[in-house]
Amino acid sequence: MPVRNVAAFVRAAVDSVLSQSWADLELIIIDDGSTDSTAIEIAEIDDPRIAFRHVEHGSLPQARNTAAGAARGRYIAFLDGDDLWAPGILQRQIEFLETNPSIVLSFASMKMIDRHGRDLGRSIQGWSGTLDFSELLTEDVIGTGAVVMRRELLDTVGLFDEELERGSDHDYWLRVALAYPTGLFGFPEVGLLYRRRAGQLSANWRRKEDAWHQLLEKMLRLAPVRSVKVAGRACANLDRALAAIAYENSEPHSALRLFLRALKHAPWFLIRDKRTWFLGAALLSARVLPGGIHHRAEQWFRTARAYRT
Q: Which domain holds residue 227?
């Protein structure tokens, strides 16, 4: 669990781990240079399964690598300090890995909550079954906090790429998929409660755009033939997600530009997806409907759409 300035949320995150039905675990918390009372909140939790370490502020992949390198168990799971695990999800994933030796990494679905832990009624569309490299490059369906993987991957695949400030998790899953073509498995049930809050890095679409170009360039080097084949659809999915973030950030002109760019990448691929229609309707509503009517349409959009971010 990498943490940085999450004092208001870290106790709930830690509790969601320590209360899992699979109790034989260690929780390695790396405080990445917090300047608030995060460390105090953690110190007040009395449980011998917690190992806590404070480091100078670096990057998220560095913090994850530090924690993973200290892990002693057969399996490694990840959770950010402001998110929550669903009850029982760790046991179900470990038991699945125990009985399916060909699977090296499992992941569950995600549900969004607000800063107070209230359900926002929005889930990240789940994945059921195995997942290959092309599918994962086309769309990142894996939430880092929903992952349980075999520790051996640290030896065969390596660590998170610390040169990728953003997107290092997506990069890691893609490298796992290259090394184990049928080794990733998704559970459609919700395992992660993903907290949306002001100032969150995932709400910065410009940074996500830069990170995506870095990631795509790397995959074009590692697996050029397979990456080129799906690059258009992957860019289309990414631009649609960026457009949705820009829309929610009240940047309608940027949202429309990104949406049109997404359609240019792979129009026939996108029009078969309901998320395209939800977002298109919201953007059109913002341009042509009176404010009050658009506001009601916007509430429908925020409830109904299920795009990935």
A: 203-304
**Burial degree of 192 (CB within 10 A; 0-12, 13-18, 19+):** buried
How distant, in Å, are the alpha carbons of 7, 43, 57, 279 from that of 40? Answer: 8, 5, 17, 42
Answer yes or no: is pLDDT of 296 > 70. Answer: no
Q: Are residues 147 and 41 in the same domain?
A: yes
- Let me know whether 64 and 107 are in one domain: yes
Q: Look at residue 306 in the predicted model and tell me its pLDDT.
A: 45
Mean pLDDT of 218-240: 97
Q: Which of 41, 199, 188, 77 is nearest to 128 (CA)?
A: 188
Does residue 309 sit within a domain? Answer: no
For residue 133, how far is the Cα from the chain centroid?
A: 17
Q: Rounded CA gap, 284 and 280, in Å?
A: 6
pLDDT, position 78: 96
**pLDDT (tens digit per residue) in 151-210:** 999 999 999 999 998 899 999 999 999 999 999 999 989 999 999 876 555 568 999 999
Between the alpha carbon of residue 114 and those of residues 132, 198, 246, 303, the distances in Å are 32, 10, 19, 13
* Total of domains in the chain: 2
Residue environment code for 2-37, b if the CB has 16+ CB neighbours within 10 A, otherwise e: bbbbbbebbbbbbebbeebebeeeebbbbbbebeee
**Using an 8 Å Cβ cutoff, are 222 and 137 in contact?**
no
Q: pTM for the complete prediction?
A: 0.91
Phi, psi of 75 (to 5 degrees): -125, 150
In this structure, the answer to whether residues 251 and 265 fall within a common structural domain is yes
Say whether both 67 and 103 belong to one domain: yes
User: Is residue 192 domain-shared with residue 265, that is, in the same domain?
Assistant: no
Q: CB of 189 within 8 A of CB of 109?
A: yes
Which of these, 167, 140, 134, lies nearest to 64 by C-alpha position?
Answer: 167
